[in-house]
Amino acid sequence: MITIKNETIAEVPALHVVKDLYQLEQDIPTIFFFHGFTSAKEHNLHVAYLLAEKGFRVILPDAMYHGERYDTSSGVSRDLAFWEIILTSIHELGVMKGELVDRGMINGDKIGAIGTSMGAITMFGALTQYPWIQTAVSFMGTAYYEAFAHGLIHNAENRGLTIEEKMKEEVLRKIKPFDLSTQLDKLEGRPLFIWHGKDDQVVPYSLSEKLYEELLANYEDTPDKLQLLAEEKIGHKVSRSAVLKSVDWFIQHLQTKVSS
Length: 260
Description:
Largest sheet: 8 strands, mixed
CATH topology: Rossmann fold
Strand order of the largest sheet: 1-2-4-3-5-6-7-8
Number of helices: 7
CATH architecture: 3-Layer(aba) Sandwich
Low-confidence stretches: none
Helix content: 25-40%
CATH class: Alpha Beta
Structural class: alpha/beta
């Protein structure tokens, strides 16, 4: 029976999903799942269910200003806080992992990360900081922080938002250390699965294709550790085939025994 526990991990509201109740405290391969912009941890439970069935622990945190952490009285514009949310999630990943290690739930490097849209952008940034992430999956995200930031700024200004030059410069300065596209060597050959719909109007598919092509040379000796799955006539919505492929990817690269 799939077990879902709503708990706080390192002060972050999260869902903790495992196949059986006794696994909540066991040392088993663990996957952190980051949701998209304006979404929440509960919205990816269908993926967590499939992963848990295969013997993984899945941790789904709420990002800042999302889910249980959403506060309409804060006066914070989530549009303007986009990169603050991402950088906070990257930091919180390290803290959450530390607490799970202290609780005896993680011992070693059987740790994966997956994200959808903003969550995948978070995942790419986390790869620059945490070599203990053994394998990763991106659903319609991008590793090109600076290029995507310029696009977001342009779109926000087209909607009538005024963004001061100092704020733009500060955002670009803060995100620079997390821009994986400028430091691809930090992947160090770790398995990476990239999925993207070709008709995505939110996060351009071209950025995923570009990343894949730039990484090919780094994976010449291990081509099975890098894959791009592009789907025709799919917009900014994760397909079932993408979900199923991500489950297979973690089975292959987190070295877990498939549960019946």
